[in-house]
Amino acid sequence: MNDGTVVAVSRDTLHRFSKVNQDVVRLLAGLGVEGDAHLGVTVQHRSRVAQDPTQPNLRQVHLIQAELFADLRRAGYEVAPGNLGENITTRGLDLLALPVGTVLRLGADAVVEITGLRNPCLQIDAFRTGLLKQVVGRDEAGDIVRKAGVMGVVLESGDVRAGDAIEVRLPAAPHRPLERV
Q1: List of residues 6+ apart from 114 with CB closer than 8 A
Q2: Are strands 150-156 and 61-65 parallel, antiparallel or unpaired?
Q3: Residue 127 in 3-state DSSP?
Q4: Could you list the residue range(s) of the whole structural domain that residue 93 is in?
Q5: pTM flag (> 0.90)
Q6: How big is the CA angle at 166 (ends 26 and 88), to the nearest 5 degrees?
Q7: What CATH number has the domain bearing residue 125?
Q8: Across the chain, what does the average pLDDT equal?
Q9: Are 57 and 153 in contact, with CB atoms under 8 Å apart?
């Protein structure tokens, strides 16, 4: 069952905000994206390392749905795959609606388990002034809504490239909604 499609894959060896589009990225079980600055068993995001470098890396892979880019374009922001620091840009799959523990098969072999929502920081405004307000807002009840994608861990290694199918396997009920990680 094809539940979505990979639009682009990106990585960067340095801790920069945006990532460089690639023809293919290799996901490594328990580590993340080969050649990416966030690869590792323990947390690699600089703010998290400063808090506690021994935390498990629940943010090995960052996925964003391309549909967000259309919303941002309507708000006056031109954003392309990799610009927001994601490793995998998807289409046709509402990533934000998936529950914790959802498993995604990307292409023939790679498997990622969704751990939670990306919590965008002020760096996003350094990329485009005012963009943070576009990707973090509040709903009618006043609750925070994060739209900047989801994070996951790699369960099975494999290559991922644009055009690959994404197969979704939901966890057993009851489902827990995604929270920031």
Answers
A1: 63, 95, 98, 99, 100, 101, 102, 103, 104, 150, 151, 152, 178
A2: antiparallel
A3: helix
A4: 4-169
A5: yes
A6: 45
A7: 2.40.33.20
A8: 94
A9: yes
| CB 103, CB 31: distance < 8 Å | no
Is 176 a member of any domain? no
> CA-CA distance, 36 to 32, in Å (whole number)?
8
Check residue 33 and report its DSSP letter: E
Write the pLDDT tens digit of every residue in 41-87.
998 877 777 788 889 999 999 999 999 999 999 999 999 999 999 99
Query: Is residue 180 included in any domain, yes or no?
Result: no
Q: Does some domain include residue 181?
A: no
Name the phi and psi angles at 126, rounded to 5: -70, -30
25: its two tokens: 């990225």
Region of 66 (left: φ > 0; alpha: ψ -120 to 50; beta: rest) is alpha
Residue 179 included in any domain: no
Distance of CA 179 to the CA centre of its chain: 13
- Count of the separate structural domains present in the chain: 1
Q: At residue 102, does pLDDT exceed 50?
A: yes
Q: List all residues 6 or more positions away from 153 whose beta carbon is below 8 Å from its beta carbon.
A: 30, 32, 57, 58, 60, 61, 112, 113, 115
Place of tokens 């590792």: 40
